[in-house]
Amino acid sequence: FIEPDWASLTLGVFVCQACSLLHRSIPHISRVKSVQDTWDASEVELMAAMGNSAAKAKYEQKVPAFYYRPTHTDCKLLREQWIRAKYERNEFEFIEKQEPYSAGYREGFLWKRGRDNGQFLSRKFIISEREGALKYFNKQDARDPKAIMKIETLNATFQPAKIGNPCGLQITYLKDNSTRNIFVYHSDAKEMVDWFNAIRAARFHYLQVAFPGASDEELVPKLTRNFMKEGFMEKTGPKHTEGFKKRWFTMDDRRLMYFKDPLDAYARGEVFIGSKENSYTVLSGLPPSTQGYHWNHGITIVTPDRKFLFACETEAEQRDWIAAFQRVINRPMRPQEYAGIDHMEEPIDGFPSK
Q1: pTM of this prediction?
Q2: For 250-260, how does the pLDDT look when each residue is reduced to its tens digit (9 = 90+)?
């Protein structure tokens, strides 16, 4: 919990410093003041009359269950659009204002990164709850989509730094049980967040049908997820003699994927990280017999079949990766996760030395 050091005098709410900066971007709605400043009696009365609980009851009275409520760790785009949706657009007081993401169908144009040349091109996207898919088209008048992404395996996460755009969104889905990435953005921040929440709405609808007895509280955490950790490490092949190569790693729950470039469409390979009950362990360092030049800070993942060797550039990175691996290994496997192991045989799990 972050202590609120600021207040919005016009809205009657206390906010943290990070949110106070965002409130300043809507001065026609919110006038902020530090709690350390001198306050006159009328200002104190105004805050006492409203307060955060009363403001929440007013401005958040009809937030859809699927709508993403950002925290202080989320990107600026999500936090700013949440504040604007609440206080500037009053989206959660009037249901009709939620149609862009609540209608069960949305179409529009997004800038999509080309798989081969890395250029961003305008592409038409359609998401349909009824069809259970997100589709995009290479040509404006094309009848057939270039790709059909099943809502069942769809995920979306904002990646502004990686994509190089404040509205950059990474969409992932499974194609032939391999993870496929597409990278998109829109120049309008509201549009991009609306797309993100439309994906969450479609996922919510899908999960409600798939798990009819489940509560909203059980389903909402499954709508979208941020990656547990990403970054560069070095890896070697299954014989541990192939030499170490620098790769971009993404840890998506129990799937550890590696890419030649952070914006690659497909992973070069994938490692399944099981639990300690299944004889998975993570160790600091590399076996003494490890050959070849590599970064100094090693990590060994021991699985029932073999050892995977990684090297990090800094001790801090090594510590963060070990902590991420340990969190997953310490968590017992869910029944549906066992299916993941079956699909990650050689060559994916074989860590081909690419």
Answers
A1: 0.90
A2: 999 999 999 99
